[in-house]
Design a protein that fits this description.
Oligomer: single chain
Number of strands: 15
Helix content: 25-40%
Strand order of the largest sheet: 2-3-1-4-5-6
CATH topology of the largest domain: Rossmann fold
Distance between the termini: 68 Å
Largest sheet: 6 strands, mixed
Radius of gyration: 22 Å
CATH class of the largest domain: Alpha Beta
């Protein structure tokens, strides 16, 4: 027997229509650097939006994804469009420092939660009235810097030189590594910088080598970080070379080639998921993401893509509580969601175990970092 709305009383039809229209829907906006200098990081993020769940926190989820081209001005324009035209409830992004930091002011201005997918601790600290709208699903660079400094001290390194991006990413990493090295009594001899789009850093590298450091630290991310790495090798530097977790991609290894061998860096657990014991809390989650990503796109995964699915996972923990106060699509819901995010406890993410609070918007601990070395074209877990 065929079902027909014509067989229903008018009141029943109106009731069904109203219920359908009033079904809550979470609208999530993403801006990411899928093109431009940060594409090696942003493409895995954009791809990962295709792996997001159709429901979050028990309600339908709708996603709006824009590319900011690795440009901060465009990232802000994207966010304003997502907020005003697409009426999103929460903003996620962006990929690099220049495209993420401008979003902090905007999130506070319009009072919308921002889930940042960038590691800088400066996005959430000091936790003032502006940053109270920002939450992170990426471990802080300060957490990673501490691991690097501890590894250097273990290996007897006494002096270090630094070269990094001439932007907020490089500045933040320099500040954090300087602080971490100081705690271990390691002296920072020199600092040089370069642009993400530079084609040569020979002058800077020669200055660093002239300072005779025991080791060097490269405060860069993505494939642009291969430039100083290759130049150090070309100019005969034989000491240890450390990088940030921003180069934990196969693409960096491909671009740096044989010169990547021996690089030491901190990574999140997903990068070495297959090397973890079965009892590790994130192993199954990470391997499932890797499997789905590589089957879907037929290319190697990159850890940065997992930040996108972790953002959805975090929302899944907070949305049910927010729904008790207000409905999506309202200013009240945005406030309720922000408040609910501060109550998330012991959430298993691909990047680690996340606990948030009113005084901590990036609550990862040491379980979110591991030291590895690039050997034979792969990331090998250090003992």
């Amino acid at each position: 027997m065929k079902f027909s709305f014509l067989a229903l009383p008018l009141l029943a039809i109106l009731t069904i229509s109203a219920a359908s229209a009033e079904a809550p829907e979470l609208r999530v906006g993403y801006t990411m650097s899928a093109t431009g200098s940060a594409a090696a990081l942003g493409v895995p993020q954009k791809n990962s939006t295709e792996l997001l769940p159709t429901e979050i926190g028990g309600i339908k989820a709708k996603y709006f994804v824009l590319d900011d081209g690795s440009d901060g001005t465009r990232a802000v324009a994207n966010a304003r469009k997502l907020i005003t035209e697409d009426r999103i409830d929460v903003l996620v992004g962006s990929t690099i420092a220049p495209t993420t930091f401008p979003l902090v002011d905007l999130a506070a201005e319009v009072r919308i939660p921002l889930i940042a997918t960038h590691p800088s601790v400066r996005l959430v600290e000091p936790l003032d009235d502006k940053r109270r709208w920002v939450f992170k699903v990426v471990p802080n660079d300060s957490l990673m810097a501490d691991a690097i400094a501890a590894n250097m001290a273990k290996d007897g390194i006494k002096t270090v030189a630094f070269i990094g991006f001439n932007d907020a990413f490089g500045d933040s990493w320099y500040a954090e590594i300087e602080k971490a090295l100081g705690q271990w009594g390691i002296k920072l001899l020199a600092r040089e910088s370069f642009s993400r789009t530079d084609t040569s850093v020979t002058g800077q590298i020669l200055k660093i080598i002239a300072a005779s450091p025991n080791a060097v630290m490269v405060g860069a991310s993505g494939t642009p970080a291969a430039l100083p790495q290759k130049t150090f090798k070309e100019r005969g530097f034989t000491g240890p070379i450390y990088h940030t977790n921003g180069v934990a991609t196969k693409e960096f290894i491909r671009v740096a080639g044989k010169d990547a061998e021996g690089v030491v860096l901190p990574v999140g657990p997903i990068t070495v998921a297959d090397q973890l014991p079965d009892s590790h809390p994130i192993k199954a989650l990470a391997l499932d993401y890797i499997k789905r990503y590589e089957e879907r796109f037929n290319i190697p995964y990159a850890a940065f893509g997992a930040h996108i699915t972790d953002a959805a996972r975090l929302l899944g923990k907070a949305v049910p509580a927010a729904l008790k106060t207000a409905q999506p699509g309202t200013p009240e819901f945005r406030v309720a969601l922000r408040d609910a995010l501060e109550t998330v406890q012991d959430a298993v993410m691909i990047n680690g175990i996340l606990t948030l609070s009113p005084i901590n918007h990036s609550g990862y601990d040491e379980r979110a970092r591991m030291m590895v070395q690039i050997k034979d074209g792969n990331f090998k877990l250090l003992p």
